[in-house]
Amino acid sequence: MLVLITYDVNTETAAGKKRLRRVAKECVNYGQRVQNSVFECNLDAAKCRQVKAILEGIIDKETDSLRFYYLGNNYKNKVEHIGAKASFDVTDPLIV
User: Measured between alpha carbons, how far is 76 from 80 in angstroms, rounded to an integer?
Assistant: First the structure.
């Protein structure tokens, strides 16, 4: 299923800046960055729970936030892209 993960990490402190980097690095392991704090991830239910637990362990729940949007398997009609950074199919293989 396609899961959109978004986050807002308070970066007023050095610890906040470190948390921001850790959240971003973790999200890169599971999906494609589509905007600064937004990742599209193609995950099954177990992997989604795993990512959620990892990210919850990184953030400070008093100052930071995470949002998970569950778009399901029929997401292609639910996502529209306009502007820079051409869209792509998250199920296609990525060549790095």
Answer: 8
